[in-house]
């Protein structure tokens, strides 16, 4: 969850060849403040409730830029299904295979584990992703 001001978002968008429209700012704010790991379709659906002018292209272009800049990660589950994660700290994605809810698990043990992996693997590591599948409390009931 990134703490980027609206002014910084405008500069970032302009610097990368995109106009800082209210729609693009809304997409940025939505995903960067989300803890739900939304899909592009969910972002579009939720934002269209407030602004009918937001297009699918705007959502995808904005997500592509944020991904390129390292502000969000794309969690691909198959060729048709992706979710987006603004949490760029070392964490484990806890995924419910029934409802597909995703939550983040962060702890010192995860950070220590990752530090050890980096030492053992060595070289230039370009990314990481650790998923644990667990039935959530809601689905257990």
Which descriptors apply to this entry?
Arc Repressor Mutant, subunit A; alpha+beta; 141 residues; three-stranded mixed β-sheet; Dna Ligase, domain 1
Compile the SSE list and pairings.
Layout: H1 6-15, H2 22-33, H3 40-48, H4 56-68, E1 73-78, E2 81-85, E3 92-95, E4 102-105, H5 108-121, E5 130-133, H6 137-140
Parallel strand pairs: 3-5
Antiparallel strand pairs: 1-2, 3-4
Helix pairs in contact: 1-2, 2-4, 3-4
What does this structure look like?
The protein is α+β, with helices and mostly antiparallel strands. The chain folds into two domains: 6-85, Orthogonal Bundle (Arc Repressor Mutant, subunit A); 92-140, Dna Ligase, domain 1, CATH 3.30.1490. Helices cover 44% and strands 16% of the residues. The chain contains six helices and five strands. It has helices at 6-15, 22-33, 40-48, 56-68, 108-121, 137-140; strands at residues 73-78, 81-85, 92-95, 102-105, 130-133. It is globular.
Q: Outline of this structure?
A:
With 141 residues, the chain is of the alpha+beta class. The protein contains six helices and five strands. Helix 2 crosses helix 4 (56-68) and helix 3 (40-48) crosses helix 4.
Main sheet specs: 3 strands, mixed
Overall average pLDDT? 93
The number of helical runs is: 6
CA distance, first residue to last residue = 30 Å
The residue fraction in helices comes out at 40-55%
CATH homology group of the largest domain: Winged helix-like DNA-binding domain superfamily/Winged helix DNA-binding domain
Please, how many domains?
2
Strand segment count: 5
Portion in beta strands: 15-25%
Order of helices and strands: HHHHEEEEHEH
CATH topology of the largest domain: Arc Repressor Mutant, subunit A
Supply the CATH architecture of the largest domain.
Answer: Orthogonal Bundle
What oligomeric state do these chains adopt? single chain
The radius of gyration over CA amounts to 17 Å
Low-confidence stretches: none
The order of strands across the largest sheet is: 4-3-5
CA-based shape: globular
């Amino acid at each position: 969850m990134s703490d980027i001001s609206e002014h910084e978002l405008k500069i970032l968008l302009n610097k990368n060849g995109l106009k800082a429209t209210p729609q693009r700012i809304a997409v940025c704010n939505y995903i960067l403040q989300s803890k739900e790991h939304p899909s592009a379709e969910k972002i579009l659906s939720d934002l269209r409730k407030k602004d009918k002018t937001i297009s699918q292209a705007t959502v995808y272009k904005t997500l592509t830029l944020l991904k390129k800049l390292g502000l969000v990660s794309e969690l691909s589950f198959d060729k048709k299904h992706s979710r987006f994660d603004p949490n760029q700290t070392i964490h484990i994605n806890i995924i419910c295979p029934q409802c597909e809810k995703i939550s983040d698990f962060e702890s010192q043990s995860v950070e220590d584990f990752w530090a050890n992996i980096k030492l053992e693997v060595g070289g230039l590591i370009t990314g990481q992703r650790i998923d644990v599948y667990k039935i959530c409390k809601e689905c257990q009931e």
